[in-house]
Design goal:
Length: 288
């Protein structure tokens, strides 16, 4: 039974999905729903080279937050403190969503890492008045910091709520303090939006290295900070256009689904249905 997240009275959405081991053995797609092809007002993107994507296994994720910490360190994401987080001004590019449900007096928990979904039909791109957010030829939703004027239209239009606004000038003025920053990543200024980039600096570095060696980028050459630090190897990154890549194979798995797929934003991040080690009929999450 998929876990349900109540949004408005009378409406539920299966943000996280799960099944039991007995049901999974009988039907590998149990707990999931068929992926439907939706009509779109936009022409379909054609990716002739790479198309980067990610798959997250909900069954492997333990909610340890190692991915959150590594993302913060890798991408110079500021630590804003308890007061600012309480004002909904947190800056973390990646968060761990938790869904709870009562089951016969016990509590079930499902952890779901949530980052920018790098949507193919990105709703943030259509509302930016200065084209500060735009689509790359490799399927990435790029953020052009020096164009951004901080309207926050993109954050309001993001169904996953994964964009962050710089309320203050967070970088340190001291030279020694700035030595802790990653020199490969731009330090963002006050008044601009920022978000997950799939660690674009690592993607570019791997591409340059492969080009210098006269070869193509191999599967596994690129590991974003979140995937590298995950002790359970729950996060897989790679080229979706490569049929032999691990992420491409996972996208064909019966457990694979995309969050809010009915919105037709075509996210590049997918999730794997959580398989619980209990028999069918033993209950499961119904409300988040």
């Amino acid at each position: 039974m998929p876990a349900r997240l109540a949004s408005v009275p009378g409406e539920t959405r299966d943000i996280v999905r799960e099944t039991t081991i007995s049901e999974h053995r009988k039907d590998p797609s149990s707990g999931n729903e068929p992926q439907r092809k939706h009509q779109s007002v936009w022409p379909e993107h054609v990716y002739e080279g790479h198309r980067w994507g990610m798959a997250v296994d909900l069954g492997a994720c333990t909610g340890c937050s190692a991915c959150v910490v590594s993302c913060q360190a890798e991408n110079n994401v500021p630590v804003v403190g308890k007061d600012e987080v309480g004002r909904k001004r947190d800056m973390s590019w990646l968060r761990i969503d938790r869904y709870y449900a009562d089951r016969d007096g016990d509590t079930d928990v499902v952890f779901q890492p949530m980052m920018c979904q790098q949507c193919g039909n990105a709703p943030c791109e259509t509302v930016c008045p200065v084209l500060a957010t735009m689509h790359s030829t490799e399927g990435l939703n790029q953020q052009i910091y020096n164009r951004c004027v901080g309207t926050r239209y993109c954050a309001n239009n993001c169904p996953y709520k994964t964009r962050r606004f710089n309320w203050f000038q967070y970088q340190e003025e001291g030279r020694l303090s700035n030595l802790a920053l990653n020199p490969d990543v731009t330090v963002r200024m006050r008044g601009v939006m920022e978000k997950c980039t799939f660690c674009i600096q690592r993607i570019q570095e791997a591409k340059f290295e492969a080009k210098g060696q006269g070869r193509a980028v191999r599967d596994g050459d690129i590991r974003p900070a979140c995937a590298q630090s995950c002790p359970a190897q729950a996060i897989v990154f790679g080229d979706v256009n490569d049929p032999k890549s691990r992420v491409s194979q996972l996208r064909k798995d019966p457990r694979h689904y995309r969050v809010l797929a009915e919105l037709n934003v075509e996210p590049s991040v997918g999730y794997m249905v959580k398989v619980r080690g209990r028999t069918a009929g033993a209950g499961g999450p119904e409300h988040g």
